[in-house]
Design a protein that fits this description.
It contains 9 helices and no strands. By secondary structure, it is mainly α. The two termini are 66 Å apart.
Length: 250
């Protein structure tokens, strides 16, 4: 925005200067035209007053001088007119140049905004590919390979937007292998490291499932109650409420 403001100030200054020069040139042209008109009138007046040969001779000399003056004035008029034409062309070129620069700045701004939106959206292709490869191992039931792949993903892309999901699937892979202690530890890391991520509520739900699978129903109940209190608007709330209702009937 500072660049854009600077260009606009420069444009105004250059334009004002060009207009000032044009007004000055026009004033000079009008002044030279008046001089030409005065000179022509003087010639006519002197011819009308001439009465004898000597006066005509004298007037002829004056007429020649006036013609020379008139030629000089006309030359100056042509120079000023040329300067005015050059000034107008420069002013037009300046406007064209400024317009081109403003368009480039606007395009750069739009491209920057598009880049920011892209950064906020889908992850880079390399990250997405690595994540999908690890997730495919989980879908195929290759849980040890899935754990290794997701751990490798976290090492390579520790700041990725997909990092919470990768850690969550590590916990799910342990749960699928009935390694509930490791599942709980992995999901607790999701909750502690990324408490604001959507996967945090899902991780607490998986922790409760692991606790219940280990026979710790009281612990599972507390985890579900904590989930409702901490993430009341999450998608996991419905499952948590259903499980608590079933537990109260036992």
């Amino acid at each position: 925005m500072r660049r854009l403001a600077l260009l606009l100030v420069l444009a105004w200054s250059a334009s004002a200067h060009a207009l000032f020069d044009d007004d000055e040139a026009r004033r000079r042209i009008e002044e030279l035209r008046r001089q030409m008109q005065n000179t022509e009138r003087a010639i006519v007046d002197r011819l009308a007053k001439a009465e004898d040969r000597s006066a005509l001779i004298d007037l002829a000399g004056q007429l020649e001088a006036l013609r020379g003056e008139l030629a000089r004035v006309r030359g100056q008029l042509e120079v000023v007119q040329h300067q005015l034409d050059v000034s107008e062309r420069r002013q037009k070129d300046l406007y064209v140049d400024i317009d081109a620069r403003l368009r480039k700045l606007e395009q750069a701004r739009e491209q920057g905004a598009a880049g920011e939106k892209a950064a906020e959206g889908a992850p880079p292709p390399a990250e997405a590919k690595a994540y999908e490869a690890a997730l495919n191992q989980f879908k195929l039931g290759n849980y040890p390979l899935a754990i290794s792949a997701f751990q490798g993903f976290l090492v390579t892309y520790p700041s990725s937007r997909l990092a919470p999901s990768a850690q969550y699937w590590i916990g799910n892979s342990h749960f699928a292998q009935r390694d509930y202690k490791q599942a709980i530890a992995a999901q607790q890391k999701v909750v502690s490291a990324w408490p604001e991520d959507a996967k945090a509520a899902d991780a607490m739900l998986n922790i409760a499932s692991s606790q219940e699978a280990m026979g710790d129903r009281r612990g599972a109940q507390k985890t579900l109650e904590a989930l409702l209190a901490k993430y009341p608007d999450s998608a996991a709330v419905a499952s948590a409420k259903q499980r608590l209702a079933q537990g109260s009937k036992r």
